[in-house]
Amino acid sequence: MPDPALATDLAGLTLRSPVVLAAGTAGVLDEVGDVLPLDTLGAITTKSLTAAAREGNPTWRILPTRGGMLNAIGLSNPGIDAFCAHVAPRIARLPVPIIASVAGFSIDDYVRVAARLDELPALGAIELNVSCPNVHGGTDFGVDPKALGELVRALRPVCSQTRLFVKLSPVVIGSPSIAALARICVEPPGASETSGPNGRPGADALCVSNTIPAMSIDVRTRRPRLANRTGGLSGPGIHPAIVKLVHDVYRGVGQPTETPIVAIGGVLSWEDAAEFILAGASAVGIGTALFADPRTPTKITRGLNKWVRAQGAGSIQELIGAAELA
Ligand SMILES: Cc1cc2nc3c(=O)[nH]c(=O)nc-3n(C[C@H](O)[C@H](O)[C@H](O)COP(=O)(O)O)c2cc1C
């Protein structure tokens, strides 16, 4: 069990430790329990769930690359009906909070899935994976300010019992700043309704971020190495880029609106996790590192514990956003 000094808070959801398993990297729900004591984790994020079951993309859909991994899984998941019937009943018995990730290709898709999840009494939060193409506009929800605002505005009243987290896309060239997109999530333009346990008009917490759009070409065959042609880059190579995004979101939106941040991207060691905390994260997601060593979360929790003491802090909360920038 983690030291009480590691406890953190995500919009009223108490986590024993800031270490959270990132969406899609640890099975559908709790399968990682075979190799990791679940009560040592802060939270587990489910695989992104869609309205219908999806097989995902053909292989290759995961590849190693310098400094990380490329993936184009294509949202392979059992679909919301099978999840609610066969997987969700386990949630109430798990010794760790569950964050359910939702993906879709239209606002109606997201609404359908989130409405079912909102009925689950033991769920910690619903997380919107907005790095999905909007079939009505073509662009991903996460980089289109209008579509993002409409999505969060539509989802807020649907999540009437459950905290609503939004997992931002990393900023790509030509899109608005990540702080502008984060502000839209927290205060969606035109939102009149507030709902959820915190009575907010938009997101209760922000997750920063999803993978970085990427591509790799085999120079011998001249073909893209991923069957989907393009995919997402994750792992240690993206960590410094995500530290900057977390810093920008914390200073621009998280701190002034008291919206907690889950930082995700390239965490391999406790130092990487500590860096995210200092940049402004209340919790830290681990994804790619689980593929190298599924016990990484335990090692990171231990390292963070020693770090909090070495910094002379009473708890990890004192170190959130505590980078000395002057
Ligand atoms: C194989 C794989 C599958 C993923 N599936 C999802 C997913 O279903 N939903 C989601 O929001 N993010 C998904 N992600 C992104 C991760 O949750 C995380 O945001 C990203 O990998 C960056 O963290 P990392 O560098 O620690 O892996 C996936 C990443 C990988 C590597």
Task: Please supply descriptive tags for the structure shown above.
single chain, alpha/beta, TIM Barrel, 8 helices, 28% helix, binds flavin mononucleotide
| Unreliable runs | none
Distance between the termini: 37 Å
Helical percentage: 25-40%
Question: Total domains, how many?
Answer: 1
Report the radius of gyration as a whole number of Å.
18 Å
Q: Overall pLDDT, averaged?
A: 96
Question: What is the level 1 CATH name?
Answer: Alpha Beta
The beta-strand count equals: 14
Classify the beta-strand content into a percent band.
15-25%
* Largest sheet descriptor: 8 strands, parallel, barrel
Topology order in helix (H) and strand (E) letters: EEEEEEHEHEHEHEEEHEHEHH
- In spatial order, strands of the major sheet run 3-4-7-8-9-10-13-14
Could you please say which CATH topology applies here? Answer: TIM Barrel
What is the annotated CATH architecture?
Alpha-Beta Barrel
